User: Fold this.
Amino acid sequence: MNPRERVGNVTDDDTIATYQSVADEYRERHDDRSPVADLVERFLDEVADATDHEPGWVADVGCGPGWESATFAERGHDVLGVDLTPAFLRAAREEAPTAAFARMDMRSPGIGDDALDGLWACASFLHVPREDAPDALAAFHRTLRPGGVLALSVKRGEGERRGGTYDGDERQFTLYRPAELRGLVEKAGFTVGSVDGDGSPEDADGWIWLIARA
Assistant:
């Protein structure tokens, strides 16, 4: 089934409500995409290899205001951006007018089996509760074609924490150590190509970047 045709469930009211209320401020804070530029290029290189340099289907899962959706579309890919925050989806449609967008839950995405060549989840998978992470990763694996590319970025750390960036910030974050994240991704059936990131291993504000193949 075409990924454009289905929409999944909607949950996680506290995190969604925070993003909905701070959508404009969030866009101003994170409009500089240089911190993820290298990961974007690595992901696109992997997707090009998976598709023999032909245009592919790419999902931007937790697309936010659509920055990477726009980049993927500009590189010639068919793009499906998904998010749970209505304000982000409105902004994303302006940012990436040639991409398709839908409101859906990454744990049960309305995307057909083996439909995608690449799945990008930048600073979004970290909002999935730890107990739901295996199901989300299994869903990612299901939607990717054999050899399809997964890119994840999550915050480094242990346990869970609540957001503290904005007034009334009720976002929930699940933190990971590199070995734990690798193990979860491999258990879902992926072959992990790289796990790295910024900052020192002790840096609580650092990021982990993972790229894998289905």
